[in-house]
Q: What sequence folds into this?
């Protein structure tokens, strides 16, 4: 069976991107015996790296919409001509190693790919033509590397000088693969041994022979190992316990979640990737439990309060920035005794008339969006109050620190003494000269002190004028 590039194969090869095809940057489709390039321009328009080596592709097609493509690998295929790559504006690297490109002039179709820096044509018949390297260097001046070798300035100069002779001496090339004819054999009539012998026979190395060999090899493998198609049926895990009394909670995808509860609403937030398609999410709400299926993995949770499960009382929203899924449910109103208003039969007497009126007011339909708006306003108000409290506490703390700092600097207790600002300088001079000086530490070091006093200030009572003490200076 021939492998095609379909959505199933692309999803299989995009697991590294959570199977999100619209944002896929790189995909490897090598060794699948693919015969045609298709569907990449439909599902994967943002591709930057495309690996298609070792397949059976005979023509370059359906790539003109891949404007972001930077690297294309088509090595070991059946390509005979370089074409249809003008639309790939961002192309930087091309690999055509071991193909069947004979006409060297087809590289001129890459002139408009101004960002092209590397080109590989090793193993193609065109590389045997005399002057092949000079012709490619002159035709594609934007190239920096050809067949793994850096292009030197001297090579560019020589190529410009010899280009006329190379073009004049270049032989006319006729494709030797167009008129190729081979006998068609019905493989279904051959035995497995005959098929093996046919594969071991030597044939010409041409695109058609290579394609036929790949098909015969695939048919031989199927004949040797017939596979029975088995449908993989995933066993559904039970939601309730065997006796049906409890819900079995589980989080198969290990998605983080949180509940937010208000007087009327119960909100469940599930934090999932923003790249996940919304079509892969399914929500099932029940009065006492909820099930969210994400990519086939269940998130089953019980609810603390009973909720309505109809469409009017349940909303599902998803953030475009973070991808978070928000499920908002309306709670069922309860009486003081814990019974539901909708299920309670009240007697029509004078005592219950007022209660009946109160119940009907509460049973009015809840506007979910209005409740959300109120909840956000309450949250914002609480945040402002907390910020104001913190600000006041910080100001009080700074004031207390400032008061302690001044009290420490003045060496007094502000609550007990009053500061005479007018005479603060006179008081400080008196305190300075009335202080006792401890001269023991200086005498121990052989230093003698002499107190120098101004003439207008009388010395203290303890002052001793010792004439034996020499002056300090």
A:
């Amino acid at each position: 069976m021939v492998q095609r590039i379909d959505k199933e194969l692309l999803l299989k090869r995009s697991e590294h991107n959570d199977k999100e095809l619209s944002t896929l940057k790189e995909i490897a489709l090598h060794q699948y015996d693919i015969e045609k390039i298709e569907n990449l321009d439909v599902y994967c328009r943002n591709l930057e790296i495309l690996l298609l080596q070792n397949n059976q592709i005979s023509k370059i097609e359906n790539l003109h919409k891949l404007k972001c493509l930077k690297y294309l690998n088509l090595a070991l295929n059946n390509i005979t001509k370089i074409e249809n790559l003008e639309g790939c504006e961002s192309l930087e690297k091309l690999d055509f190693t071991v193909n069947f490109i004979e006409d060297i002039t087809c590289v001129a179709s890459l002139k408009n790919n101004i960002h092209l820096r590397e080109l590989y044509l090793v193993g193609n018949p065109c590389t045997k033509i005399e002057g092949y390297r000079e012709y490619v260097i002159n035709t594609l001046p934007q190239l920096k590397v050809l067949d793994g070798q850096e292009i030197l300035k001297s090579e560019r100069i020589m190529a410009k000088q010899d280009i006329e002779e190379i073009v004049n001496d270049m032989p006319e090339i006729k494709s030797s693969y167009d008129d190729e004819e081979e006998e068609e054999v019905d493989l279904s009539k051959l035995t497995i041994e005959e098929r093996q012998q046919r594969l071991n026979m030597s044939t010409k190395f041409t695109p058609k022979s290579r394609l036929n060999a790949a098909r015969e090899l695939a048919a031989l493998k199927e004949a040797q190992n017939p596979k029975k198609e088995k449908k993989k049926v995933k066993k559904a895990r039970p939601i309730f316990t065997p006796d049906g009394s409890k819900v079995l909670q589980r989080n198969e995808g290990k998605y983080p979640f949180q509940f937010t509860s208000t007087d009327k609403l119960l909100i469940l937030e599930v934090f999932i990737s923003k790249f996940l398609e919304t079509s892969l999410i399914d929500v099932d709400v029940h009065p006492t439990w909820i099930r969210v299926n994400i990519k086939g993995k269940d998130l089953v949770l019980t609810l603390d309060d009973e909720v309505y499960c109809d469409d009017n009382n349940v909303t599902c929203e998803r953030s475009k920035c973070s991808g978070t899924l928000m499920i908002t449910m309306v709670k069922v109103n309860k009486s003081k005794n814990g019974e539901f208003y909708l299920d309670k039969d009240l007697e029509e007497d004078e005592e219950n008339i007022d209660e009946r009126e109160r119940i009907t007011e509460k049973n009015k339909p809840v506007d979910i969006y209005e409740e959300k708006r109120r909840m956000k306003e309450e949250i914002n108000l609480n945040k402002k109050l907390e910020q104001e409290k913190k600000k006041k506490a910080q100001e009080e703390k700074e004031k207390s620190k400032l008061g302690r700092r001044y009290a420490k600097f003045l060496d007094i207790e502000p609550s007990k003494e009053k500061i005479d600002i007018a005479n603060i300088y006179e008081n400080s001079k008196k305190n300075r000269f009335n202080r006792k000086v401890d001269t023991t530490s200086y005498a121990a070091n052989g230093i003698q002190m002499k107190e120098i006093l101004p003439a207008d200030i009388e010395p203290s009572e303890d002052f001793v004028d010792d004439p034996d003490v020499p002056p300090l200076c």
About this structure: DSSP finds ten helices and 15 strands in the chain.
